[in-house]
Amino acid sequence: MGKTLREKGKGTVKLRHAGLRPTRQRVELAGLLFKSCDRHVTAESLHDEVTGAGVKVSLATVYNTLHQFTEAGLLRQVIVDAARSYFDTNTGDHQHFFLESEGMLIDIPGETIAVAGVPAPPPGLSIDRVDVVVRVRRT
Fold first, then answer.
1. Looking at the DSSP assignment, which residues form a beta bridge with residue 108?
2. CB-based contacts of 40: which residues, under 8 Å, 6+ apart?
3. pLDDT digits (tens, 9 = 90+) for 102-123
4. Per-residue pLDDT tens digits for 40-73
5. Alpha carbon of 41 to those of 4, 50, 67, 121: distances in Å?
6. Is residue 86 included in any domain, yes or no?
7. What span, in angstroms and rounded, lies between the C-alpha atoms of 129 and 76?
8. Which residues does residue 78 pair with via DSSP β-bridges, in sequence order?
9. How far is Cα 71 from Cα 74, in angstroms, rounded to an integer?
């Protein structure tokens, strides 16, 4: 439940480097998000995790914080359909498998997939990135 000063310090440094003020709620959420290996979370799953750790924070605050972390480049948002959005701590070059029956995203290393035939954007626009979500099912 309680984080060490060292863990909280890492979250604070990460937030400051991203240009975000390290509020108590941001530090708590960053501590959970970035404490170990890369992961995919929804706002609801992170809210369950943080409240399970004894931190009082609203679901709206979790949503807002995830979007702030995304804008600051700490997270990458992956939209799998109109009703589901995930936040990925791995912001590097990669795509995703989506196991819909379990609501699980699995990373595909960036060098293992190529996207061909991307059309030129309309005048005045440039392509930021191309997201590929490959839907899979258990056999």
1. 95
2. 78, 86, 87, 88, 89, 96, 104, 105
3. 999 999 988 888 888 999 999 9
4. 999 999 999 999 999 999 999 999 999 999 999 9
5. 23, 12, 12, 31
6. no
7. 11
8. 86
9. 8
- CA 126: distance to chain centroid? 23
- Cα angle value 98/86/39 (rounded, 5°): 80
Last residue of a domain, one of 81, 102, 121: 81
- The structural domain count of the chain equals 2
Considering the domain architecture, whether residues 38 and 9 belong to the same structural domain is answered as: yes
| 8 Å CB contact between 88 and 105 | yes
Pairwise CA distance, residues 40 & 92, whole Å: 13
- Which letter, b or e, does each residue of 9-28 get, where b requires 16 or more Cβ atoms within 10 Å of its Cβ? ebbbebbeebebebeebbbb
Which CATH number fits the domain that encloses residue 75?
A: 1.10.10.10
User: Token pair for residue 57?
Assistant: 């924070």
Instruction: Tell me how long the chain is.
Output: 139
Task: Report the relative pairing of strands 133-136 and 94-99 from DSSP bridges.
Answer: parallel
70 and 99 part of one domain = no
